[in-house]
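Morning, I've got a small favour to ask if you have a moment. I've been staring at a protein lately and its backbone has me curious. You're getting the sequence in one-letter code plus the fold written as tokens. I've dropped the whole record in just underneath, so have a look:
=====
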Amino acid sequence: MAVRQPRYSKEEFAQRGQAIYDDRVRLLLEADNYGKIVAIDIETGSFEIAEDLLAASKQLSERLPDAQTWFVRIGHSAVDHFGARSLRTKQ
């Protein structure tokens, strides 16, 4: 199996992916799919939605084997978090 190579800089990749999500995908999905993952091909605008990153990726790759995939977690600013969570307590 050949490894897909990025065809865009990190900045352009992110800009294109976020623009497609904001302009085409957000209004279609956001209301009923909070927390799910959207995999978007930044070249065609095609997308797949799933409960997790692996499932969304697999679904899109089956349709578009050469997809340049951008991921978004619906309703969140990031797909995942890294490191320790906040240690502040709720008041």
Notes: The chain has two helices and three strands. The CA atoms of residues 23 and 49 lie 16 Å apart. The chain has a mean pLDDT of 85. Residues 10-73 form one domain.
